[in-house]
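Luciferase-like monooxygenase (Acinetobacter baylyi), 340 aa
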Amino acid sequence: MRVNMSVATLKDTHFSILELAPVRDDQTIQFSLHHALELAKHAEQLGYRRLWLAEHHNMDGIASSATAVLLGYLAANTQHLRLGSGGVMLPNHAPLVVAEQFGTLATLYPHRIELGLGRAPGTDQVTMRALRRGRQETEDQFPQDVLEILKYFDDPEPHQKIVATPGHGTHVPVWLLGSSLFSAQLAAKLGLPYSFASHFAPRMLSQAVQLYRENFQASKYLEQPYVSIGVPTVVAPTDEEAHFLATSAYQRVLGLMRGQSLKLKPPVKSMEHIWSASEKLSVNNFYAMAQVGSPATVKAGLEDLLEHVKVDEFIFTCDIYDTQKRLENFSYLMDIKNAL
């Protein structure tokens, strides 16, 4: 489905990064957290618009579970890069606690902190129950919880019984995240920016973006619709090297599908002896939006994507095993944009 309503170009499209602090199979979690800061500094130097952290739990290959804490570490050691959550899984948390955490960050680092909110648990059912122990909230309460957080960030009303301190008056920008049509519709109704999780669930991308744009209602938060989409990337000097490096990402997704370790593994020459035909198809569907190849190949792929889906921003992920080549991936992407 083509939803492009005007000509969009890579030059006019903002570039951002979604970081999950991936854990390598030969390194410590501390190494991953330090690398997340290295990436944030790199992104700031390159001119990326924002860097977000994703909340996941009980996954041995993802070290960004304590999202607000890690954001504080990144913010304290960078200067101007916008930092946020992509996202905080709201059903796992009391809205007041989220508002206080991000209100604290916004007070310490003004005009740099953003809050992306998701309605999924970001984990398995057993872990979800552990996170929500003693709480009865469900995804059905997501719209009410979003409104509650927006109120906490606003200026308090007279005689308001609960005031987020820190938090009130910080006006932290709130985004809604989603991989289906629900959050797209809610973001449009509330007049909030919207980010679609096409980096792992691309199937409903076109429908969600179209629904959001067609139903957007201007608000005090946003005058015009603004949408970003997740794009997995593996960029290297040649197509051949990029496809080789991408096998680390394929093994990671395969581990997710098999219920195995999500730690990053070294790239392999061929995946044929690792996955079955059906697993290969599932991984390819998972990574349908992935841009893998040389800078020229990825440039063409991103331009093709913009022709089919009108977006304001790409938020890139990357699961390259070698940390230096991972940093270079984001350098190549910004080189593509700057060359225009």
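Residues 34 and 152 are 32 Å apart (CA to CA). The beta strands are 14-19, 50-53, 82-89, 113-118, 174-178, 194-196, 227-235, 291-293, 313-317. ok done for today
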